[in-house]
Amino acid sequence: MSFDKPTVDWLALSPELIMLGAGAVCLLGAVMSPGSWRRPFGATVCALGFLGAGVAAAFLFAESDEPRAIVADAARRDQLAALAKLILAGCGLLAVGTGYSRRMSDARVGEYYALIATAAAGMAFFVSANNLMTLFLGLEWFSIALYVLCAIDLDREESLEAGLKYLIVGGFGSAVLLFGSALVYGATGELGFERIAAATGEQGLTDDSLLVFGLALMLAGLGFKASAAPFHMWTPDVYQGAPTPVTAFMSAATKVAALVVTLRVLTTAFPELDELWTVAVAVIACFSLAVGNLAALVQRDVKRLLAYSSVSHAGFMLIAIAANNELGGRALLYYLIPYAAMSIGAFAVVAARERELGRPVALEDLAGFGWEQPLLGLSMFVFMIGFAGLPLTGGFFGKLYAFAAAYEAGWWWLMLAGVAATVISLYYYLGVIRAMYMRPSAELQFAAAGGSPPREWLLGATVLAAVVVTVGSFFAVEPVVDVARDAAASLPLD
Amino acid sequence: MNDWLTTILIFLPVAGALAIWLLPLAERTAGSLALLVALVEVGFWVLALQRFEFGEAGLQLGHEATWSEDLNIAYEVGFFGFSLWLVGMAVVVGAAAIAYAFWAGRDRARSYFGLTLFLTGAIVGVFTAQDLLLFYVFFEVMLIPLYVLIGVWGGPGRLGATLKFVIYTVAGSLLMLVAIIALGLQQDTFSLTEMRASDNEWIFLGFVAAFAVKAPLFPLHGWLPDAYRESPPEIAAVLSGVVSKAAGYGFLRIAIAEFPGPAKDFQVLLLALAAVGLVYGSLVAFRAPDLRGVIAYSSMAQMGLVTLGLFALNDAGFDGAVLQMVNHGLLSGALFLLAGTIERRAATGDFAALGGFARGRPALATVLMTTGIIALAVPGATTFAAEFLILLGAFDVGWGWAAVGVSAVVLAAMYTLRLISAVLHERPGRAVAEEALDLRPAELGIVVPLVACLLALSAWPAAVTEHAFAGDRPADAVESRFEAAPNAASNRLLQGSPALAAGPTPRYVVRVTGVDP
């Protein structure tokens, strides 16, 4: 028996490889350089890695008009994966900028950057998964990196708790996904997404209980990662406890990866079952909208509030997936771009305030923040109206496209659910603005000790970049939507 | 230049706002720059007035650029006769508001004046946008500066007031967004000029919901008293004078012109809501304990009157409604600014603590009296002309509507006279100090131009009524759209008013939207 070595499309894997390489160099550098050099060295290498991965992903996007399977059909080279990799690289770059001035022991800083690069590489691999094996491999790859990242503040109990909680719940989610994959494999005898679809059609398995159950479990497993309700229980605790830059990265990048893969799996592997999963996704979307928005109303801690907001945004984006049409694909991929920027930006602002005060930021702690720090305050303002979907931010077109997709699919009630959720969400998004601008800082319990807070140029630049993406995707909606449309065209959507 | 005039009118204030925010200006300089920009804006409007051909039908001074081809979204702006007058009113009131703020002094001046200019730009955008999504964008963007202006510089109850205001408004406008999406996807375009008339009632109601909250019409006015009471006076002037007119404009330009069939079907409902709002607003205004309360509720009543005119769906009603929108914008602006000057002197707007302002303060007494007399629609005043037309239009639909309208005119006299006597006459109130000054020259310079505009319109109301729809008689326009509607099965429209029953005239090419049939 001979073994054929599959040809490897190195270009298609280059973003992952560059990020992995950057991670490895970070680790080696941390071992070989003196303590005080580790932070700048790690950050620079990591940032360069993300930059390189972004360039590679952009090149890959331009060179992948024809979607095709690579590496013995294990992965897929198409514009959808390339765009997702580009967004992920951007998230990584912003996360490095967010975390740079964080107080962290020099002993661990090398690992910190290495893990971020590794997690992003795992996500980049995950989004191009083309069969159940690579799907699970990618999921575990980035999840394990994230478990460690959440717990990287060894001296903070909340961080450890967040890491442990994420490990247990995330592990459960992975297990559910794996079990679902096994059932699907058992029902169809196939691993590749397209072959599963073909087998379902050929063997008439649309009513097969094994397959349906497997699909449901896979959906639940992906729902855990996308923090869609009712699989979101870990989200607020982990987002609150994890170091804020890690939360920023996680909230944006994990959601990008999980939702892109959800769209890919559902449309390529289960087109025969679409009557089933569109309803399921729509119900999950409504759940997420309800839980996320209602729970966010009563939060005092800003990170928890943003965590619930991210649950509700999972709902908005699932609306686009539930639509199961070309417009929906476009909507999701467009939405992810401003969403990722807003999410990282908002957590970066929280990180800045946290460093200034030296404790977790509650809404009351934002009093007067907008006037003290005009750039950060105004940016937070932009992110909040963006989350709320008001115009002048990409959040507006994101919601517009998601609603339009739902309307085109005939889900008018889903559209109305989205509208109701948006109205409710205004209360807490405006609550943040109110806390920043409309209360005098005299209400702040204690002022930051010793003069003005340290200037953090890198953090300011990161936040500014996030604002540019948020607002830019509104005014330059056409080029962004063009890219999203090309990416969505890689999938068999009509 | 003609191409760009509309765009300049929208983006000049926005550019001014950006300049004020970004340049490290001193507070005085920021205020002067804002005032300068606002005055130049008025100048550009005069230029637009001069370039506008009133005899010609259709969209003028139009400017078009592609925004996104994906969903066929375009940047498309331009003027019709009536939008030109509304924009004129908006820029004049906006300039007066900025002048007042400059004179009164506001802390954090750069943020403040930037926001007011930004608001002006958004309002002009609402009145000129010819693409539904662009309209929606401007409509929502108005909200952002208003929210901050009231929330930061407002009175003690500002937090609750802004929250209520924003949630009410956004709830309405999101229903409009749903309607826009449905309409746009059905017709494959968002352009108002390319759109075919629709007879979908749900979509119509989505639009009506947004405008009914913004106006506000009767059951949706919960945000109104708080927002008007807690705002700084010049913002209340813009809010009640100008922003509420976005609702009237939307009713006319979108709800009626694009949905002639449903507009006719729901005519009675909307007339009823308008009439209830009119009477209710007037009654509450009569019982309101303070200056702002009277103006706020009278504002609601006046928007009810405007809606009554619009949904009479005939020429007289449309003409009267447009004139009344312009009138009320100027009037409400002047009244809120006057309320501001009075509150500065007495530190309260409570009637119980006011009174006797006329003695020794002739300028204040004269200006307030003149404004009040115009507000109560004394014959000869421009408001009288407008109300007469509206009532004429309403009478065409049914005498009952006109009767309700007339009773409201009587109520208007009651609450206005009560306001005048409570402030100017009676015994000097405990909050009115002997040494409280008369209106200063600067204050006169701000308020008198508004009153002068009103007097000029009183002398020649036809300036607006005969130049609002140019060649296009509005009812014809609605009629012609109905004829062009895909589903022209229901001829109910023809059984309505005489004006409509007359059928399309030979020159009915003219239409509000200016598209060849």
SSE sequence of chain B, one letter per element: HHEEHHHHHHHHHHHHHHHHHHHH
The proportion of residues in beta strands of chain A is: under 5%
Oligomer: heterodimer
Please give the domain count of chain B.
Answer: 1
The percent of residues in helical segments of chain A reads over 70%
Q: Summarize model confidence as the mean pLDDT of chain A.
A: 91
Number of domains of chain A: 1
Strand order of the largest sheet of chain B: 1-2
- Helices and strands of chain A, in order, run as HHEEHHHHHHHHHHHHHHHHH
Strand line-up in the sheet with most strands of chain A: 1-2
Low-pLDDT regions of chain A: none
Distance between the termini of chain A: 43 Å
Number of helices of chain A: 19
* C-alpha-based Rg of chain A, rounded: 22 Å
How is this structure best described in words?
The complex is a heterodimer of chains A (494) and B (517). Chain A has 494 residues and is mainly alpha-helical. Chain A has one domain. Chain A has helices at 10-32, 35-62, 79-99, 106-127, 132-150, 157-188, 193-202, 209-226, 234-241, 244-269, 274-297, 302-323, 326-357, 369-372, 374-387, 394-408, 412-438, 457-475, 477-488, and strands spanning 68-70, 75-77. A two-stranded antiparallel ribbon of chain A has the order 1-2. In chain A, β1 (68-70) and β2 form a beta hairpin. In chain A, α1 packs antiparallel against α4 (106-127) and α13 (326-357) packs antiparallel against α15. The mean pLDDT of chain A is 91. With 517 residues, chain B is mainly alpha-helical. Chain B has one domain (2-501). Chain B is 69% helix and 3% strand. Chain B has 22 helices and two strands. Chain B has a two-stranded antiparallel sheet with strand order 1-2. In chain B, β1 (60-68) and β2 (73-79) form a beta hairpin. In chain B, α3 runs parallel beside α15 and α9 (224-230) crosses α14. Chain A binds chain B through residues 330, 371, 385, 390-392, 396, 400-401, 403-404, 407-408, 412, 415-416, 419, 422-423, 426-427, 430, 433-434, 437-438, 477-478, 481-482, 485, and chain B through 66-71, 73, 108, 133, 136-137, 140-141, 143-144, 147-148, 151-152, 158-159, 162-163, 166-167, 170-171, 174-175, 177-178, 181-182, 184-185.
